[in-house]
């Protein structure tokens, strides 16, 4: 429903939702790797 309201197209809204979800996962993994490297060097 939100994709239809934001983009006037349900399919584009679904792609956007998937993009946001996977981007959040990738960012959290990168932050975790960065924090582990900082902890090893300290």
Describe this structure in words.
- This protein has one domain.
- The protein is mostly helical and 42 residues long.
- It is rod-shaped and about 50 Å long.
- Helix content is 90%, strand content 0%.
Unreliably modeled segments:
none
Number of helices: 2
Task: Indicate the structural class.
Answer: mainly alpha
Please state the CA-atom Rg, rounded to the nearest Å.
16 Å
Strand and helix order: HH
Overall mean confidence score, pLDDT = 85
- Strand content range: under 5%
Number of strands: 0
- The amount of helix comes to over 70%
Keywords: Membrane, Transmembrane, Transmembrane helix
Question: Helix and strand layout, with pairings?
Answer:
Blueprint: H1 2-7, H2 10-41
In short:
The protein is mainly alpha-helical and 42 residues long. The protein has 2 helices and no strands. Keywords: Membrane, Transmembrane, Transmembrane helix.
Question: What keyword list fits this structure?
Answer:
42 residues; membrane; 0% strand; mainly alpha
């Amino acid at each position: 429903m939100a994709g239809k309201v934001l983009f006037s197209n349900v399919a584009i809204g679904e792609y956007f939702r998937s993009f946001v979800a996977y981007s959040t996962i990738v960012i959290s993994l990168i932050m975790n790797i960065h924090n582990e490297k900082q902890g090893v060097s300290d």
